[in-house]
Every structure is written in C-alpha cells, then in structure tokens.
Amino acid sequence: MKVPLWRVAFARSGDKGDTANVGLIAFTESLYPVLAELVTADKVKQHFKGICRGSVDRYELPNLCALNFLLHESLGGGGTVSLMLDAQGKTFSAALLRMEVDVAEELVREADEVSGWSERLE
Amino acid sequence: MRVASGQGFWGDWQEAPKLQVRRGPIDYLMLDYLAEITMSILEKQRERDPAAGYARDFVDMVLDLAPDLVSRGIRVVSNAGGVNPDACRDALVQRLADVDTGRPLRIATVRGDDLMSRLDEVLAAGHELRNMETGEPLSTVRERVTAANAYMGAGPILEALRQEADVVVTGRSTDTALTYAPLIHEFGWEADDWNRIAAGVVAGHINECGAQACGGNTLFRWREVDLVEPGYPIIEASADGSFVVTKHPSLGGRVNWASVTEQLVYEMGDPTEYITPDCVADFSTIRLEDLGGDRVRVTGVEGRPRPELLKVSIAYRGGYKATGMLTYSYPDAYEKAVAADRVLRGRLDRLGLEFDEIRTEYVGAGACHGPLAGSPDPSVPEVELRISVRGEERDRVKRFTRELAPLILAGPPTVTGFAAGRPRVHEVMAYWPALIEREVVESVVRVEVTEA
Fold first, then answer.
1. Residue of chain A minimizing CA distance to B389
2. d(CA A24, CA A94)
3. What residues contact residue B96 under an 8 Å CB cut-off, 6+ apart?
4. B38 and B182 co-located in one domain
5. Of the candidates B265, B285, B323, which has its C-beta nearest A66's C-beta?
6. Best label site of A50, A64, B75, B159, fewest CB within 10 Å?
7. How many domains does chain A have?
C-alpha cells in the first residue's frame, strides 16, 4: 500500500556546514531492508528538488535499522552565513518523511503498532 | 562509573546540571558549551574585555553546585573556558571564596587549543590550514580571521584528572572527550585500546546533546513524553567498554531504543568513520539492547587508530546580514505577503541597493519545507513574511532594515507584528574547517591546577 514514509519510519536531522544530515530509522527490523531498497540516494535527491542543490550520499546502518543521508549544498551556505529560517536543517527530518513509499500492508500494520498510529486511529 | 550530561549547548536548560547532581548518584558531570560558531562570539567578547571570552553561566552553575560536588564527590568536566579558560578560572576562584565547601576545590585549566594568538607564526612555519571543503589556503582570508582553535582530545583532561582536579575547564576540546576522558581515567584504558575508546566516543556522542538522547526533540511517540522536567542522559559505564544509557528515575523524558538511535544518527557523517583526536569510531558496529525501564545497553563498538592530524575550527568575518518580519492576516494572507515582498524588493532596486543574497520566506506557507509543503492554503489564518539580506557592506544592510516599517502604512493591508522595531544588523562569521599536525598543538598544551 502507498503510505507516507512517516507511517513506517521516523527520523532526526542536523547540520555540518552547508550539508544537512537526515537519519531515517525504520519502526521495525523487517521494514529496514524494504526501506533500504526503496529510499535510495537518487530518490532522496529527487524528493528534495529545489532544496538540495548538491549531491546526496547514503550510508547504511543495518545494526540500527537506519539509513543516513547527507544532503550537500542544502543550507544556504550553512552556519551563520545562511539566511534560511531552518539554517541547521532541523526540520529536514520531517521533510523526508513526506516521501511516498509503497510497502506491504502487513509491514505497515506492524509499524502502526510500534509508532502508536493504530491507537490514534481508534 | 556514571558520567552525566548537564548541558548540550550554551543556552541549554539551567536546571539540568542541578537535577543531575541532586536527584541521584553520579560520578562525573560533563557540560558542553561550545558549538562551531561559539568560539568567534567569545573571541569578540574577549576583544572588548580581556577578562571575558568564556561561558559565564558556567561560573554561576559551579558556585551553586560547589557544596554538593564536594559532599557527593562529583567531578565536573567542561569546555566552558571558551577562548579564555584562565579568566574562567579566575572568576571561579574569586567567587568561590565566599562559598563554604568544607575543603578547597581544585580547578584545572587546559590551554593550547588557541591558535589565534600565534596564527602568523603557524602559517609562516608552512601550515597552510587549507579549507577541508574547498582546498583553499587560509592566507586567502587571513585578514578576516577572528578565531582559530584546534580540537584537543582526552590527553589534557586526563592530566587534570590525574592531578585530582574537581573541576576541569578546557577551551576547544572535542565534545565527546568530555565524556570519554573520565572513562579512560577511571578504567585505566591504554591509549591504543581503540575499541574501548571508541565505545567512550559513542557514549560521548549520546551525552553531548543533553536531553536529545532522552526523548527531547523526538519524533517517536512524541506526544507521550513528559518534557517539563526531563532527565538528561547518564552513561553507566563498565571497564570492558560496554555501557547503559539511562536517566534519573524521578525525572521526566524517556530513554529507549528510539531515543538513543535518534541521537546516534544526529549530525552523523560517514558512520564508519567518526573521527576524534583519540580514535576513529565505527558506528556501524554498535549493538543496542532496550532493557526497559529507561535503560538501553550499548555493546560491540569497534574503533581504529587515531588520526595523524587534528581538526582546526576557524571563524572569519563574512560580511553582514539582517532579517525582518511582518505578519499578514486572513483573508489572502499569503498573497498579501507576496505583494509586500514585491513592493519591498522594488524599493530596494530603486535605491540601487544590491546584496550578495536576498531571501524571502513565508512562515506558515512553506518556510521550512519549501516546495515539499505544496501550494499555500488560501484560508491560512496568517502568514509571516520573513525577508533577509546579506552583503559585504554594513551600511547597505543597515539601509535595508529601514525599509521594513514603511510597509505598515505604505504596503498591502492587514499587517502587524512590527513591535520589536527595526531589525538588527549582525556580523556574519563564516566557518573554515582545517587540519593541522598534532605536534603543533600538543607541544604547547598546558594543564594548571589552582585551589579555590
């Protein structure tokens, strides 16, 4: 089923100069390989079109069920040079979680249990 | 062995260190005050006043906690010294004279990270301090440099602890060392015990952002975390390098697999190459086990030998900037804000004011996520126009700040939010990361202990 990424993962973002980093964490272990296949560096680069002017690197952390993305040239020069409201990329985590992914329904249901989404739907 | 985190940055919650000391047993309290740009702010303060240039909050904190530190046998390790650890020490010594602590406190200062005072000498000796991102030598911006500090590792902190310091005040130490130096000291780890030191680095990374490891800024079930009085992280370390992340049970916040994982990936580069002055840690080897009850065990961390070069953080003057904000209300809030931006830019044009960059953002209509937020909702109750400029000349930026207020009477309708007056002009401090041979720094590192 097609769901926004936030149904199956959570994230945290930060900055290193003009590069934003987004760590994407799967809600369950069985979701990690699915996300590793779906959320590629290219897909993320495309998702952040108009925001990320440089390249996107991806690092895999299966031990933490996490993917780490580096979005280069994304923070208006970074640090105090930047004129951006979000000069430190603090909200890039939530921006990535807007991405739509196609994930087996059973895996989404499992994630809903972990994230608390199923309780909120009740 | 419990190393508690009490501050994640300068300006963090002032109650946290007190709660860490008073709400349960800890052995060490680490307080991180320095971000990349903090050093240049402190350097500016020192230029104006030779007795300034350190985190003043820290002195108040130590004064308040001094009797507890003595009675509970807790040692403090902090980089609060900024660009002037000696002045920080002097302030502590002077003000501790009026505090009854039962016995004198031993205060250690660590110096040697400051390259600013000998920058020309260092450059003349052939160290080009090339920008790690652009490859340019520092000589291209030398005249504009305001601060240059090398990241020191555990070495000087270990020396201070060996000399039985109660409070260690450093300048630009690497943030994680404030946590792993106490571990090396207590457990007697060898300097080439890369796996254990790497485990200490991971512990330091978890500690260095305060409540962020304990349910602060969490996206995982965020509604369920009580953050009124959050616990800050505590590392319960073992001699074999494994440790448990926890918090005091009587405080709020939350420590679980999610809170720790979120902090582990924060500001992460290549996770297999987390470089510190004392080892290279590999975050892909970390094993987490959520034990429940706000306890997460961390094991398996592997590391590699320390790098030959130390990182240097340099700040240089990069022009001026200012940001102005005006709020437009329903109906058509976004459209009005866009019209105001058009008017303002038209006026800047007619004044012949050019800038390196002009940036307009619409708060409430996609300022954070830009095109990802979709087109603005026409019924949005209000939109804040946020317009910023940056340029080399202060006068031009100053002139821009006078063009905001006129929009109230001579601009689109239903505008408010200008009570704070004209925007302030800020000097931009640009960041220049570089590398330097260890010897240049380590040969001048000095540790000094004073009783107060």
1. A83
2. 10
3. B62, B63, B66, B105, B452
4. yes
5. B265
6. A50
7. 1
Structure tokens at B414: 């239903």
Please name which of B319, B320, B324, B321 lies closest in space to residue B423, comparing C-alpha atoms.
Answer: B324
Same domain, B183 and B270: yes
- Do the Cβ atoms of B224 and A84 come within 8 Å? no
Rounded CA-CA distance B409/B219 in Å is: 42
In a domain, B108, yes or no: yes
CATH code for the domain of B384: 3.30.70.2750
Q: Are B175 and B243 found together in one domain?
A: yes
Both B277 and B392 in one domain: the answer is: no
Residue A13 domain boundaries: 2-121
Q: Which amino acid is at B171?
A: G
Q: How far apart are CA B235 and CA B161, in angstroms?
A: 18
- Min distance B206 CA to chain A CA atoms (Å): 14
For residues B96 and B239, membership in a common domain is answered with yes
A50 contacts on B by Cβ (under 8 Å) = 370-371
With tokens 């952040």, the residue in question is: A48
CA distances to A10, B52, B171 from A27, in Å: 7, 47, 40
Domain that holds residue B325: 318-431
> Which residue from A minimizes the CA distance to B267?
A14
Per-residue pLDDT of chain B in tens (452 residues, 90 and over written 9)? 999 999 999 999 999 999 999 999 999 999 999 987 788 889 889 989 999 999 999 999 999 999 999 999 999 999 999 999 999 999 999 999 999 998 999 999 999 999 998 999 999 999 999 999 899 999 999 999 999 999 999 999 999 999 999 999 999 999 999 999 999 999 999 999 999 999 999 999 999 999 999 999 999 999 999 999 999 999 999 999 999 999 999 999 999 999 999 999 999 999 999 999 999 999 999 999 999 999 999 999 999 999 999 999 999 999 999 999 999 999 999 999 999 999 999 999 999 999 999 999 999 999 999 999 999 988 999 999 999 999 999 999 999 999 999 999 999 999 999 877 899 999 999 999 999 999 999 999 999 999 98
Of B217, B266, B357, the CB nearest to A83: B357
Residues from chain A contacting residue B219 (CB–CB below 8 Å) = 6, 10-12, 93-94, 97
Residues B75, B186, single domain; the answer is yes
Mutate to test the interface with B, among A31, A35, A80, A117 (most CBs of B within 10 A): A80
